[in-house]
Amino acid sequence: MTIRDIAKESGVSIATVSRVINNSGKVSDAARHSVEAAIAKFDYQKPEPKKRKATKLFGVIVRNMSNPFFSKLIDVLEEEAYRHGRSILLFNSRNNLKLEQTFLEECKHHRVDGVFLIPRSLKEQHIAPLQNTSFPVILLTATSPLCLSIGTHHQHGGRLVAQHFIKRGYQRIGFIGSTNQQSDRFIGFKRALLDSNRMLSDKCILTPYTTQSLQQFVEQQILQSEVPLEAIFCSDDISASHLHNQLNHTQMSKRVDIVGFDDTYIAQSLGFSSVHQPMHQIALRGFELMLDALKNGYHEQRIANKAVEYLLEPTLVLRSSPTIAIQDRLYEILKEP
Length: 337
Description:
Rossmann fold, 3 domains, 337 residues, single chain, transcription regulation, Transcriptional regulator, LacI family protein, alpha/beta
């Protein structure tokens, strides 16, 4: 018995039968009753949807491609995808939530098998809809109880920096952040200082910042202060590099202990300490989660609400001078001699 037979029995169009079966679109009460009667008479069963053919394509939505940490993460994902006979479709949301949502729709149109998402927001209103996608979505670098996710224990990273400052005996400590004070990196840092009876004064906190506010902060808290800051924790290596450049060629450039976060080539080339995120393990474990979700039934996991969070531990890399040596480079574009 087919949908065409139901339409013939009930005296309506195939489209009307489809709307009744799928409960979509407007249908008159008379037509609905007629279709339902025909379905009951012939014990019609809606056929199971055809299994979507795998495209071997994964979407990757990155929050900020200019951040070298994310560039390295993409490099590992692309390498792992190639190793498994797959490809990636890359999107850069530019820290724009609407763009991120648009790109999720683009991934649907391209019929990707799954999406790796470095999210702009962890609010429930933005993460919860990911449970309703037709493909698995894996959050990378950040975690949520509402979604399969893997990231770094950022609070522990903040604590590592605070413990380093305490061990060095610093009393005048500051923080510069690219986000607000609700970030886990800042929370872990501040709590560890309080546990050791060290106060983090509000005037020594700059978050978020602009070029002008950073200049004022450096002038007031370091260059012109009678009791300048001895150590500053920056929320990422980009922020730390901005501070490093502000202090460069001043008398305080070697007297302020700067610690960043991510341990990218920026920290390695400029020579300041940084918290190392295990980005290689994040990418590899994320890929394992994706393959497991596809193999064992993502839809069943979603129905059972089996979202899993994985947190990997960071480490603090201490340095006082650049650690990247100049290397020979091959030709990037081949041309005729």
